[in-house]
Specification:
The chain is mainly beta and 836 residues long. Helix content is 5%, strand content 40%. It has five helices and 37 strands.
Length: 836
């Protein structure tokens, strides 16, 4: 594809040449593209320059100015990778800690602490602040600030040698905000799109988003021009905690009891769909016609001719704000049964009243049975959505330690632990989060999006005045309009149970000569009611397509309208299981050396993808039970600290200038060697025609791991896999005749990696207790690549026949060194710290 942006008055060319590949560009002004009203193709696939929209041209002229200095122009007739730029990235962290202790008298002691940290992150946009551009790490092209503090006061009182109490009060607060690089500007108005930048609404400032089909990072996910829909955002979290613990010693029993009361606040204002600045989406159909062949050039042609397939902007009706109380009570007894045997017994009660919003209407829950959105605290609706309050969260804990002899100890334990609701996802449906979207109307898929007044959406028309959501007095909003019916909605189950984990272990520790100790352990846990985010508006039978969705004929849908959008239940309960054997060899610091060697052989099993993600197979959910996405069978960890043998009290250079300069330095390091994570081999799901249940590939011969890296050397033999049959034609598809793949979820493993970090540091005395610590650190010292899993097919038409099937084409992570811990190349940093 070639684009010549010179004006028609120039003698050399008078056309924007769109494509020389297979495909045809049609003039959208010559018909609606249907078979009854076909369009006229552009001659030679050349668009006259006078038909190119002025705003489209302004974007491309701006891009040309950015690209020209670093563009590879050796072969413009067939350009590949002809634009590259190294985007500036900075991350600055400032932190400090203070603590004060004061003994009022021998029975009363008070202490206080305060810690503060400020992190400022900047990632430059690819095309400059005015144009934005496709982003690197997760669409972040912005300036981000994160300020956090933690403070607390402790009071201890001794009533007697056998009775004492402790009272703690603390506050932890985090404020995180990010703004696109052109925040506060009217860039959208400047380029010629009115109605985007609204005075007095800073979230609408900046450049409008331009999404062009298969252009830009991740295709439709991030815009080619403009910024991620996630920007800007404001987040504030606060935990307020009051604790009172009591300790009583009764002969050979140490009894402890206490209470813990917490107030949790979580506020997050962040859009995800279009952004507050709005976005124009351009696709292939708008410059095609019935029977026409399309390619990526049609996406670009739709942009040049300004015929969007979708236009929309996000609106913020409320600032989503989550509020909840947590209350815990515990009692425990450490029983010294004999000089060799110690037994621990304990019981904890946890209470999580259902969360409430900061303001009425701050929660909006979807009720698929009634086909309504229910607003918390409005009309007769309870502010906690009517969720059940659970009072029976009891968590027993027990353990023992038995000293066999002076060098051998056996330990074991069992405990239950509950977890709170993961509040990042909650009942933030319309109208808490809403948008104005303008889509295709009529019967043709080839026409442009239409505004509410019936006019075609264009750059010059811009955005109409935002239409705010109305709040009904009864707090019930029926799903009776296409805009609501087609939205993905969250449903909070009113019978939600907090998940808990049952953990147990047995360990044997043996002292060895040379300041060494060896520990062998069996460690396991079982998760109960573990959260999974599941779309339940998908079929429970095979082959029926979207028409089999349980909400297809939704209660309030107008005639001829059907609901196929997702109903995400957050969360449904599933189980998990982890079993491991662990070995650890530890050397206490002596003669300048300390180290810890640990090895784990384990396996984690569960149902959901990721941490609290969804399922691959809605039908026959047991098929999802497989190794967890993050499971690594083998894990070797080596850490060490070595004091260099120079300086006072050491073997060499015990005095003089050499002792001052070289003496006192220490080296520490951490080396991690892990095996690969599991992956699933997917196949084309079209013949299965069952939304919500993925199709996996057939393994037709032995699975051969070739350990290849890169586009010419696959990780595994791709000919080992084939496309399964799916549903038969002409016959109803049932569980007995459906052709499912014979491979399962996470059946195969990808490459492992090595991570090695090294630190050289020394403390220099300044005055009394004060010292200066100098540190030089290397992350990923060996610069060993850490590869991602191979491309494992897709549920789209390409399936196992994709050109990159079986190939490792990317690395883990996106940052370097301490930015995200894993991924990226070698990173070096130096620091100086004063301790006093």
């Amino acid at each position: 594809m070639i684009i010549d942006m010179r004006r028609s008055g120039q003698p050399t060319r008078k056309f924007a040449v769109v494509t020389t590949c297979k495909g045809q560009i049609f003039d959208p002004t010559t018909g609606d593209g249907t078979a009854q009203h076909p369009r006229t193709p552009f001659t030679n696939n050349q668009i006259p320059i006078n038909k190119v929209n002025s705003v489209s041209l302004a974007f491309l002229v701006g891009l040309s100015k950015v690209a020209q200095p670093n563009q590879n122009q050796s072969n413009l007739a067939s350009p590949t990778n002809n634009f590259g730029i190294n985007l500036p990235f900075t991350k600055t962290t400032n932190s400090y800690d203070t603590k004060i202790d004061f003994a009022l008298n021998e029975k009363n002691h008070i202490s206080g602490r305060y810690s503060y940290q400020s992190v400022n992150t900047f990632q430059a946009p690819a095309f400059g602040a005015f144009l934005g551009g496709p982003a690197g790490a997760g669409g972040f092209e912005a300036t981000g600030t994160q300020n956090s503090y933690s403070t607390g006061v402790n009071y201890d009182h001794v009533f007697s040698p056998t009775l004492l109490t402790e009272v703690r009060f603390g506050v932890a607060h985090l404020h995180n905000a990010a703004q696109p690089s052109d925040y506060g500007t009217s860039d959208a108005s400047t380029i010629g799109v009115p109605g985007v930048n609204i005075s007095g609404q800073p979230f609408t400032s900046g450049q409008v988003g331009i999404i062009i089909g298969n252009f830009g990072q991740s295709g439709q996910t991030y815009p080619l021009f403009g910024y991620s829909a996630s920007l800007p955002w404001i987040r504030a979290e606060a935990n307020i905690d009051f604790v009172n613990n009591w300790t009583k010693i009764i002969r050979n029993h140490t009894v402890k009891a206490g209470v813990d009361l917490r107030r949790v606040r979580d506020d997050l204002l962040q859009d995800q769909t279009f952004s507050p600045r709005g976005a124009f989406t351009f696709a292939e159909n708008q410059t095609s016609s019935a029977g026409g062949t399309t390619n990526v050039a049609n996406d670009m042609a739709s942009f040049l001719l300004d015929v969007p397939s979708l236009v929309g902007r996000d609106l913020n009706t409320f600032f989503p704000a989550y509020r909840q109380w947590w209350f815990f009570v515990f009692a425990s007894d450490k029983w010294q049964v004999s000089p060799k045997l110690t037994v621990d017994l304990g019981l904890r009660w946890e209470f999580y009243p259902p969360a409430t919003p900061k303001v009425a209407s701050g929660f909006s829950n979807y009720d698929p049975i009634g086909g309504n959105i229910v607003l918390a605290g409005v009309g007769g609706n309870p502010s906690n959505l009517g969720m059940q309050t659970r009072y029976r969260y009891f968590a027993p804990r027990t353990g023992f330690s038995y000293r066999v002899n002076d060098g051998t100890v056996v330990r074991g334990g069992f405990g239950m632990s509950y977890t709170a609701y993961p509040d990042n996802s909650y009942a933030y449906n319309y109208p808490v989060r809403s948008n104005n979207s303008y889509q295709l109307t009529g019967g043709s898929p080839y026409t442009a999006a239409v505004l509410n007044d019936g006019t075609t959406a264009t750059f010059q028309a811009g955005f109409p005045t935002p239409v705010a959501a109305s709040i009904p007095s009864n707090g019930i909003i029926p799903l009776n309009t296409p805009a609501l019916i087609n939205q993905s909605l969250n449903q909070i189950p009113l019978n939600y149970k907090n998940p808990y984990v049952e953990s147990w272990n047995v360990a044997v520790q043996q002292a060895l000569p040379g300041n060494l100790s060896l520990q062998l352990a069996y460690v396991a846990n079982h998760g109960v009611d573990i959260d999974a985010n599941v779309n339940t508006n998908v079929p429970s039978t095979y082959g029926g397509g979207a028409q089999s969705d349980p909400e297809y004929n939704c209660p309030n849908c107008p005639a001829g309208t059907h609901r196929t959008a997702a109903t995400n239940v957050i969360f449904l309960p599933f189980s998990s299981n982890y079993q491991s054997l662990q070995a650890q060899l530890t050397r206490r610091f002596a003669n300048g050396l300390a180290f810890n060697t640990a090895f784990t052989w384990g396996k984690g099993m569960g149902y959901q993808n990721g941490d609290d993600g969804g399922l691959n197979f809605f039908i026959n959910k047991r098929r999802n039970y497989a190794p967890m996405d993050f499971d690594r069978t083998l894990n070797y960890e080596q850490s060490f600290t070595y004091a260099l043998p120079f300086g006072r009290g050491m073997k060499y250079m015990t005095s003089g200038i050499g002792a001052q300069v070289i003496g006192g330095w220490k080296i520490s390091g951490i080396v991690s060697i892990v095996s690969g994570t599991p992956f699933t081999v997917f196949a084309n799901g079209n013949t299965l025609n069952t939304p919500g249940t993925a199709q996996t590939a057939n393994l037709v011969k032995g699975h051969h791991v070739l350990h290849g890296i890169g586009p010419t050397s696959p990780w595994f033999d791709p000919t080992s896999f084939a496309q399964p049959a799916g549903c038969p034609t002409g016959t109803p598809c049932t569980a007995s005749n459906v052709g499912l793949g014979n491979t399962g979820r996470n059946q195969f493993r990808g490459p492992g990696y090595i991570q090695d970090n090294l630190s050289l540091f020394k403390s220099f005395p300044i005055f009394r207790e004060a010292n200066l610590e100098a540190r030089i650190e290397a992350f990923q010292l060996s610069n060993s690549p850490q590869f991602n899993n191979p491309n494992t097919g897709s549920t789209s038409a390409s399936g196992v026949s994709a050109s990159n099937f079986g190939q490792v084409t990317s690395t883990l992570g996106s940052g370097q060194g301490s930015v995200n811990g894993v991924g990226g190349g070698r990173s070096l940093q130096a620091s100086v710290r004063i301790n006093f």
